[in-house]
């Protein structure tokens, strides 16, 4: 099958540091290639892939020193995708809603995975206008705020089994990994660790929009608590050590988390998760097996003292059963095959596909 994967341009595929969506796009793309499909990845030029790469900007936008405007870059990418749409059996979009107006004529050969929260103002009206576009959710809970739309299924994220190795024994610290923002709960994590009298290591990025929250709220708590260590953003190699050595991952979210990739990353290492009961948490964490689901800080403190009772090997087996890239890929392939587009297009697709590399325009400015 000829498949296009269309990724956001803010991070490379896979990301060098933080970036959940682009990481999942990478894992899915590589597994599709491994299974013998012809995959074209539309992404930033510094992406690394075994698929055919169409570079839609020279480098990922978030870390670019040039301060690039993401709108022209994404619009240019989508125009390239539109021009070459005939080359593919399936076009899989990961860019929220930007492409909706341009795919009407071939929407039956598309699928769009929604990676973000769907409870924001104006989204319901927007999705109601495009209620024919085939959509995939990353959890059932993610769908709750949506009007009636064309859901094809829910596909949970998955990781390659070997990318984060199992760690049988852990150190005595708690881990917080992700992004410094109010909804991710870094202040709650600090309080949980303080009450539990355990060290806390925080590995997180700080977006520009959250810098005042960091300076005014989180940083003072980090400086005030000698048991808290702020590490900053970490890469994949550092993540294996960071999560694998932790006694538990703290996930005290205060928002309807659509999935929570970090939770299955911890599980891959055998590290249990202590998570607040919000969003997709009950769909991902098996309470009492791969971690504990709690309602508040007091319950989280009690759970932290119980994580030693959990079998880290069983945590890893739960990951292997439910959250591998192979399982994710199988779920998406079932959706791809269910699409109802015109199937009598193979000769045209072959003609277009052979010209993609030669016709590539200059990377978006």
Compact summary:
The chain is of the alpha/beta class and 365 residues long. It has two domains: 2-158 and 324-359, Glycogen Phosphorylase B (Rossmann fold); 174-322, Rossmann fold. It is built from 13 helices and 13 strands.
Can you tell me about this structure?
- The radius of gyration is 21 Å and the shape is globular.
- It is α/β, with parallel strands linked by helices.
- Mean pLDDT is 92; it is low at 342-348 and 361-365.
- The longest helix is centred in the N-terminal third of the chain and has 15 residues, at 20-34.
- The chain has helices spanning 20-34, 70-83, 123-129, 186-196, 211-224, 236-244, 261-268, 281-284, 297-304, 312-322, 325-338, 346-353, 356-359; strands spanning 2-6, 38-43, 52-55, 90-93, 110-113, 134-137, 150-154, 174-179, 200-205, 228-230, 248-251, 273-276, 291-294.
- The protein folds into 2 domains: 2-158 and 324-359, Glycogen Phosphorylase B (Rossmann fold); 174-322, Rossmann fold (3-Layer(aba) Sandwich).
- Helix 5 (211-224) links the parallel strand 9 and strand 10.
- The protein contains 13 helices and 13 strands.
- The protein has a 7-stranded parallel β-sheet with strand order 3-2-1-4-5-6-7, covered by helices on one side.
- This is Glycosyltransferase family 4 protein.
- Keywords: Plasmid.
- Pfam families: Glyco_transf_4, Glycos_transf_1.
- Residues 171-302 form the Glycosyl transferase family domain.
- Residues 18-119 form the Glycosyltransferase subfamily 4-like N-terminal domain.
């Amino acid at each position: 099958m000829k498949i296009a994967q269309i990724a956001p341009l803010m991070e490379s595929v896979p990301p060098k540091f933080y970036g959940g969506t682009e990481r999942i796009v990478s894992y899915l793309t590589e597994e599709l290639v491994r299974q013998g499909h012809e995959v074209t990845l539309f992404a930033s030029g510094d992406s690394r892939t075994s698929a055919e790469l169409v570079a839609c900007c020279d480098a990922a936008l978030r870390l670019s020193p040039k301060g690039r405007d993401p709108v022209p870059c994404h619009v240019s990418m989508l125009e390239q995708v539109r021009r070459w749409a005939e080359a593919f059996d399936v076009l899989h979009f990961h860019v929220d809603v930007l492409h909706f107006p341009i795919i009407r004529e071939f929407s039956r050969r598309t699928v769009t995975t929604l990676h973000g929260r769907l409870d924001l103002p104006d989204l319901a009206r927007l999705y109601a206008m495009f209620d024919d576009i085939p959509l995939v959710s990353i959890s059932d809970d993610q769908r709750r705020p949506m009007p009636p739309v064309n859901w094809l299924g829910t596909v949970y994220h998955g990781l390659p089994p070997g990318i984060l190795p199992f760690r049988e024994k852990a150190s005595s610290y708690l881990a917080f990994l992700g992004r410094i923002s109010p909804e991710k709960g870094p202040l709650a994590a600090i309080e949980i660790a303080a009450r539990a009298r355990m060290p806390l290591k925080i590995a997180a990025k700080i977006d520009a929009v959250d810098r005042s929250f960091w300076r005014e709220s989180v940083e003072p708590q980090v400086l005030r608590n000698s048991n808290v260590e702020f590490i900053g953003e970490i890469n994949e190699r550092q993540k294996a050590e960071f999560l694998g050595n932790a006694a538990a991952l703290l996930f005290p979210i205060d928002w309807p988390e659509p999935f929570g990739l970090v939770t299955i990353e911890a599980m891959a290492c055998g590290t249990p998760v202590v998570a607040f009961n919000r969003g997709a948490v009950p769909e991902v964490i098996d309470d009492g097996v791969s971690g504990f689901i709690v309602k508040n800080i007091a319950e989280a403190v009690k759970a932290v003292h119980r994580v030693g009772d959990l079998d880290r090997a069983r945590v890893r087996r739960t990951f292997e059963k439910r959250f591998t890239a192979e399982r994710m890929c199988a779920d998406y392939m079932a959706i791809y095959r269910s699409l109802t587009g015109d199937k009598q297009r193979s000769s045209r697709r072959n003609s277009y596909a052979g010209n993609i590399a030669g016709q590539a325009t200059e990377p978006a400015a």
